[in-house]
Amino acid sequence: MIIPITSQMSLELEKVSACAFVDLHDPPWRAHDFKQVLGQGGYGWAVINKRHTEEAIFAEASTDEHEKHRFDNPNQCMGYIVLRDCLDFIEILKIATHPKFQHQGVAQQLLEKALSHCHTRLVLEVAENNHRAIALYQKYGFQCVGRRKRYYSNGKSMDNQNETNAIDALILEMSAAPST
User: Which domains does the chain have, with CATH numbers?
Assistant: First the structure.
């Protein structure tokens, strides 16, 4: 089930971000990052595990205390996408899938939702070594239109200008099909 994200979901989104970006150069967002972006006109969607939600409702009705505690959050977020409108394009600020739900089409659902909302260009940045993400974006027609040198840190502070392991960001763009 895809639902619009709200600032009330920030802690759940932070959990997904922390798990999804653990081995990548792009740092995970904290709850306050989500609240800030949403408060400044950002928007997006989350894929909620419907089966998990139905099981949680059943568990809530159960008298088994172990079963009730198994579902502390009945609306478990499987993944999310955060966007913002810019002058003549929409920027994908963050897209993530919880590792437990990767390879199940969650990111594809989110991209398709963003595409159905977009009547202009979609733009995003991705680490040049994030090959799985790049392949997904290319599948949807994104093309590389630029590069930001040494954009992502190797885990150290980017204040160190001598950092040699910094990763370039590819700027990918896709023009949405014009409405008929």
Answer: 2-175 (3.40.630.30)
